[in-house]
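Escalation from tier 1.

The customer reports that the assembly of two entities below gives different structure tokens on two consecutive runs. Tier 1 could not reproduce it. I'm attaching the input and our single run for tier 2 to review.
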Amino acid sequence: MLSDAGLRFELLWRTLPPDWPGGFWWHWLVFTIIILAFVLTLVMGFIYIERRGMGRMQARLGPNRTGPFGLLQPVADAIKVLLKEDITPARGDRIVHWLAPVVAFVPALMIFAVVPFQDGAFLADLNVGLLYIVAISSVSTVGIFMAGWSSNNKYSLLGAMREVAAVVSYEIPLVLSITGVILIAGSLSLNQIVLAQGIPFILLQPLGFLLFFIGGCAEINRSPFDLMEADSELVAGFHTEYSGMKFALFYLVEYGEALAISSIVTTLFLGGWRGPVLPPWLWFLLKVFIVFFVMVWTRTTLPRVRIDQLMALAWKFLFPLALINLLITGIQVLAFPEALPWVMVLVNIVIMAVLVLVWSKLFKLGWGRVEV
Amino acid sequence: MKFERYGKGIAKGLTVTIKHLFRHPVTTQYPEQRLNTSRRIRGNELIWDNKKCTGCATCAKACPQGAIEIMTSPDLIENKYKVEKYQVDTGYCIQCGLCVEACPYEALFMGYAYERARYRRGELVQADEMLLASAERPRSGYMYPGIAAELPEQTLLIDRAK
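Tier 1 run:
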């Protein structure tokens, strides 16, 4: 028996890389810790910004009791949620109910493996980085559907169904709007895309940015597209039956995904870590916060949409515009590769304005019988 | 051709919310900041003047809740009623102010205070000396413009926003 165990150990030893625990594992360890810390701290920061910012936009103050300026409010929230009783519904599916938050959270975390914090600073330099993001980010939906199904609650299931319908619809314009960026940058690696942005792609791809931002907000269920957890009709959607640690995990997923979308928008359209004077990682953080602030801004402003409006927006507005954007970008990249960038910027902004204006005339609900 | 649904409304809404971001918030941080209430507030507790009260019990008759209880005994030497007990169950009081309006001798006033929560039901029942006016128990200007003139002016949220 002893020799058998020894043999196994030796086999394991041989399968390890020769320089173990050399550069590869140190890199893995350091960046895993960085990503975990980055996500957890920034999620707390996001919760603070959202609650305070929303409060001020509604002429309130927002939470200001815990710590200076209410800075410790997310900590207090976390402690409160973690100390609560963890309930599983009596006739729910225990294992799936337990597994769902994990399945939802892990992909949200995995997105950050390919997001560059500065030049070459990321966990994995995937040359198919964007494809990886698109693939991994849709796995969260499975977790959310698991949560809705295992809760044995009609509201949970309804919320989860809406979530799946929305994500499947919005995935298409989302991916198509990214394709324009890929065409211009000529690479799927996020670091290469950042390096290609002499001028930020938000100027070269204004329509793509608009589509991606709207699609991203819908993909992560942020208001005004939060009808899968519409409190007034569905209690809380898929996480109605969740409490304690598992609810905390879903809360984390919500803001983790917002962070992921902000990071991707920053990387793809706002020039990522590039910027003068300040260190690159600070530029990255700054841009992430700006994008998230715009999300909070739209959330405070816009009322929730109906399910038919949500679907119509995806299929009748975002999808055709994304296709046209792809076509125009393709023509531009193929026919005028030498064109001056600033001319292209102007042309693209004009194209965006014209397309949005024209499509607002074509965009109708219920063959024009339903008021939008 | 009329264009209307291209996002003009959204842009308008966004400018409104961003303007609110730099506006003075309307909320008051209650225990630290307090607004002055109306000078004619019908506050939580009745204020009773034992010198002016004749024990006629008009207030007790006017009270729709029956919260006021008066016991008097005839004082034959001075030829008037002596008030032996004047008791108000403030737990029953609905702050309607009818007793104050009914009092013919100006001996009863509404309270100006609004923080009169108690831990026990028994503490809500107040009698005699507990009902007298003092520095902690100012009188409200309800029904009495003279008292109202001495109280601080009400803070309005419109004034604070300036």
